[in-house]
């Protein structure tokens, strides 16, 4: 069964909290490898994405397919800065989130369409 997924994501130094708004499930995940630095909330994008994927998987009880998934970054959004938001946005997109919103910062950003050159390449291989 496919359903829309809506998560609230709170980012703290080396910790991520994920709330599945559909089911009310809450996960508080301490990163296994630190992703923060004293002056930056998200200093290492790879370790951040790893922690985010694990927290998301726990919130969904295992493997998942994200259909029309939406994420709202709540706590920590104001501390990220432009480069930090880009890292978080890229990690959420790589995991599979389609719409990402940073609370108090901007309108939700839907996933962009594939570039025409990539669509042509995919069609050529089919």
Could you give a short description of this structure?
The chain is α/β, with parallel strands linked by helices and 126 residues long.
Explain this structure to me?
With 126 residues, the chain is an alpha/beta fold. The protein has one domain: ATPase, nucleotide binding domain (Nucleotidyltransferase, domain 5, 2-Layer Sandwich), CATH 3.30.420. Helix content is 32%, strand content 27%. The chain contains 3 helices and 6 strands. A 6-stranded mixed beta sheet has the order 3-2-1-4-5-6, with helices on one face. Helix 1 crosses helix 2 (81-95). It is globular, with a radius of gyration of 15 Å. The model has no long low-confidence stretch (mean pLDDT 76).
Topology of this structure?
Layout: E1 4-12, E2 15-20, E3 25-30, H1 45-59, E4 67-73, H2 81-95, E5 99-102, E6 109-110, H3 116-125
Parallel strand pairs: 1-4, 4-5
Antiparallel strand pairs: 1-2, 2-3, 5-6
Low-confidence parts, pLDDT < 50 over ≥5 residues? none
* Helix vs. strand class: alpha/beta
Helix content range:
25-40%
What is the N-to-C order of secondary-structure elements (H for helix, E for strand)? EEEHEHEEH
Q: Which oligomeric form is depicted?
A: single chain
β content, as a range?
25-35%
Q: What fold name goes in the CATH topology slot?
A: Nucleotidyltransferase, domain 5
Mean pLDDT: 76
- The CATH architecture: 2-Layer Sandwich
Number of helices: 3
Strand order of the largest sheet: 3-2-1-4-5-6
Reading off the top of the CATH hierarchy, the class is best stated as: Alpha Beta
- The gyration radius over C-alpha positions equals 15 Å
Instruction: Estimate nothing, just give the exact number of structural domains.
Output: 1
Number of strands: 6
Characterize the biggest β-sheet.
6 strands, mixed
Outline: globular
CATH superfamily, please?
Answer: ATPase, nucleotide binding domain
């Amino acid at each position: 069964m496919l359903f829309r997924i809506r998560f609230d994501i709170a980012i703290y130094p080396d910790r991520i909290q994920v709330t599945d708004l559909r089911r009310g499930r809450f996960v508080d995940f301490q990163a296994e490898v630190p992703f923060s630095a004293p002056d930056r909330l998200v200093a290492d994008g790879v370790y951040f994405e790893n922690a985010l994927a694990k927290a998301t998987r726990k919130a969904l009880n295992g493997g998942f397919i994200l259909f029309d998934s939406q994420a709202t970054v709540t706590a920590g959004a104001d501390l990220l800065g432009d480069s930090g938001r880009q890292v978080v946005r890229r990690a959420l997109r790589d995991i599979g989130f389609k719409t990402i919103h940073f609370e108090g910062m901007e309108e939700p950003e839907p996933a962009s369409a594939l570039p025409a050159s990539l669509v042509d390449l995919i069609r050529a291989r089919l």
